[in-house]
Design a protein that fits this description.
The protein has a five-stranded mixed sheet with strand order 5-11-10-7-8, with no helix packed on it. Strands 4-3-6-9 form a four-stranded mixed sheet, with no helix packed on it. A two-stranded antiparallel sheet has the order 1-2. A hairpin with a 4-residue loop joins β7 and β8. Helix content is 12%, strand content 40%.
Amino acid sequence: MSRARWLLVGVSAGCGLLAGCGGDDGGGEAAATTVATTAATSTTSGASSSSEAPTTTAGFDGVLIEATVTGDNVQTASRRVRIDRGQKVRIRVQADRDEEVHVHGYDLSGDVAPGRPAVIDFTADAPGVFEVELEQAKLRLFELQVQ
């Protein structure tokens, strides 16, 4: 990754720390910036937005995608995350209720509860667009586009 891109990632992560304290924009499907160790972030609202959100965390070399659920509001850096086929993916979801996070198409799931995030690690080896949702609530968190 170029030095300029790393600088952009660092600045974006810093902005994400500040923006993460904001409230709902009244749109019902608010999407605010989520914070990772280093994250290329963009604030979006609506399910049709798309942006890349590659990031790394200590001990993990891949794409980290984070989402936080409060009530029916989902906060995530992007409603559609595009990644390359073969990349390692870590999905980390925090929620204010007991639920199951489900990655459709890959048929992967993890349990989430208040104070206990769901973490799902896998290699994105199947191309396509896959919904990630809270299963029982049928609440879409984001789409994973593998190309």
